[in-house]
Specification:
Layout (H helix, E strand, L loop, with lengths): L5 E2 L2 E2 L7 H6 L11 H7 L7 E7 L4 H19 L4 E5 L4 H14 L13 E3 L14 H5 L2 E5 L14 H17 L3 E8 L15 H7 L2 E7 L7 E7 L4 E5 L4
Parallel strand pairs: 3-7, 3-8, 4-5, 4-6, 6-7
Antiparallel strand pairs: 1-2, 8-9, 9-10
Helix pairs in contact: 3-4, 6-7
Length: 248
Amino acid sequence: MTSLHFDGPMVAGGLSYQVDELLAAPGPAGLPTGVEWIDQMTGGLAPGSLWTVLGATGVGVTTFATRLATATATATAAAATGTVILANGHVPTRSLARQAQQAAGRLGQTEVQPPSSLPRLASWLPLPNLGDDSWDGDCERADVVVLDTWDEMWRPEHWDNTREQRLASLRWLREVARRNRTALVLTGRLPHGSPGAPRPDMHWAVEPFDDVADVNVWLDWSDGGSPTRVATVRVRGGGSARNRLPAA
């Protein structure tokens, strides 16, 4: 049987394959997200996959992103495979560093961690322009890149992009990440107190995130006014589930 080449979850383009070939090809091992039930449902964060995370301001989008980045960094350090980068454009970087260290403690790591077991931090990472095959060198070499939030990483000339331009640029970012086998996590924030599931009329990120995501995570509060955070996880080509998240 011919060895198949996959770009992330997709078989490389240009050729067609038998169904039994595709089903027999082993899937890549995923990295843990720090939330056990999400790992069981998704298989973890697979190389070249794209996850999106949406939630209202205050529900813990950055907390979730930091926990995920720290959990995957711990796994890559143990396997000595690569690095994880967490870019955040709104939390002061030293505060983000403390959050990452606290997340490591909640994940059961010792109080003092080797640098490689924590994510590398950035305040901004330039996104590739449409049609550019290359990305920032650190991003191309990373196992996982978390962009919290996606729009905070835009170049200034893209701030007034149209709906179609945003969608095209995000599809291109997905292709560049797949080619480098870099797992990509993008976050977005809905208006404070947004009720119900995200809708395209609620925030401009809903439509492009739904378009590109292999796994879509929506963060919310549990029903009945409880302060417990929950996540609704939808896997493209698979099912969906809603469950509690670990305490922040």
